[in-house]
Design brief:
Strand content: 15-25%
CATH architecture: Alpha-Beta Complex
Number of domains: 1
Structural class: alpha+beta
Order of helices and strands: HEHHHHHEHEEEE
CATH class: Alpha Beta
Helix content: 40-55%
Oligomer: single chain
């Protein structure tokens, strides 16, 4: 029993510390798009939520774009297709580059340019680090634990 409490305390501590260390607040896009996701019968939709958040477009529009570029219903999206879609459909000046397995906090401190937002790709997930001009900070748009995932690729928008 004591071990269970220790594990729970450790998980809560890691989660809280990871969220505090990021340069801004976390917007839980899973909760934001619950109704949209359920209406579309979707799952594994992190790429859809990341695109909707990054470009301030509707979930439905982001869903249409990701489908156009090969994402099936309830499936994840290939990183190469995601980059191609962003450059072709949304921002033809978007820069994209490999990242050496660092989390969102370190990415924002070490690699992010002031005023830019990023779609960041980890091993099996994608989320957005969105610049907020009012706070001058990057805010994570994704799942609450995305701040601890190691990023392997980024799209600067």
């Amino acid at each position: 029993m004591r071990t269970i409490f220790l594990i729970i305390a450790l998980v809560i501590g890691v989660t809280a510390s990871a969220q505090v260390k990021l340069n801004g607040k976390i917007v839980n896009t899973y909760k934001v798009h619950t109704a949209d996701r359920e209406a579309a019968g979707e799952s594994n939709d992190c790429s859809v939520r990341a695109i909707a958040s990054a470009f301030d477009i509707s979930y439905q529009r982001a869903l249409e774009l990701t489908r156009k570029y090969g994402r099936g219903r309830g499936e994840g999206m290939n990183a190469k297709s995601l980059v191609g879609m962003v450059v072709s459909e949304l921002d033809n000046e978007a820069k994209h580059f490999a990242v050496n397995n660092i989390n969102s906090r370190r990415f924002s401190k070490k690699l992010a340019s002031e005023g830019s937002s990023y779609i960041v790709i980890s091993q099996r997930h994608v989320h957005t680090l969105k610049y907020n001009s009012e706070t001058g900070k990057l805010h994570l748009h994704g799942n609450p634990l995305d701040s601890v995932l190691n990023i392997i690729y980024a799209i600067q928008i």
